[in-house]
Specification:
- The chain is 18% helix and 33% strand.
- It has helices at residues 4-18, 20-39; strands at residues 46-50, 58-62, 71-76, 82-84, 92-96, 102-106, 110-114, 127-131, 140-143, 152-156, 163-165, 173-177, 183-187, 191-194.
- The chain is elongated and about 55 Å long.
- The strands form four sheets. A five-stranded antiparallel β-sheet has the order 6-5-4-1-7, with no helix packed on it. A five-stranded antiparallel β-sheet has the order 13-12-11-8-14, with no helix packed on it. Strands 2-3 form a two-stranded antiparallel sheet.
């Protein structure tokens, strides 16, 4: 026998299940809002260029991180690079257009050109490393950001010997300075810290 309380609970669960798609869609935005409230507005200290967009098309900038939010501006391929947050939120990057409009663009349509400057607290290359677990004839890619999705900007080889890097890894990646002073990120699993 189903009691009135059980019926009410079942009705509430059904309503939640029905609205599940809406709740699920909204959660990342709420999480992003809480993150912004906790840390302040993200610093737009990285630089991006529009990519994967036809030259005769525009990239819509939206009021929040998601396709369901209204447009607030546009970007075109070939335009001057724009400032943006250095980290994406659920596949979206907060950017500021040349007209001064701040909004969100899909990260898949942007290519990061620069990392944050030293003033933002970027780890200084204060420790020394050598490449390990890499064949002598091969190399380790140094990437523009901390992850495999970032493009290679330099190479490290076993024969390079010691090179400078940040003393702590970030999500399994170490900020390093390769030959010629080129800075980037290398996978910590292929680095061995050595005495200077």
């Amino acid at each position: 026998m189903i009691t009135k309380r059980a019926t009410a609970t079942l009705t509430a669960l059904t309503a939640c299940a029905t609205a599940g798609g809406l709740i699920w869609t909204a959660l990342p935005v709420h999480a992003a809002a809480r993150l912004t409230e906790a840390t302040g507005t993200p610093a737009l200290t990285c630089t991006y260029r529009v990519t994967n967009v036809r030259s005769d098309a525009v990239l819509t900038i939206r009021s929040h991180a998601g396709e369901s939010f209204g447009p607030v501006g546009t970007l075109r391929a070939g335009e001057k690079p724009v400032a943006g947050a250095c980290a994406s939120v659920n596949g979206w990057v907060q950017v500021k257009t040349a007209a001064g409009v701040t909004g969100w663009a899909p990260s898949g349509k942007l290519r990061k050109l620069t990392s944050p400057p030293a003033a933002t607290g970027r780890p200084a290359p204060a420790c020394a490393y050598r490449v390990t677990h890499v064949r002598r004839a091969s190399f380790l890619n140094v990437r523009s950001g901390a992850g495999l999705r970032f493009r290679p900007v330099a190479k490290l080889r076993v024969a390079d010997g010691r090179f400078a890097g940040a003393c702590k890894a970030t999500r399994g990646w170490v900020k390093v300075r390769a030959a010629g002073g080129k800075r980037g990120w290398a996978s910590a699993g292929y680095l061995r810290k050595v005495a200077k």
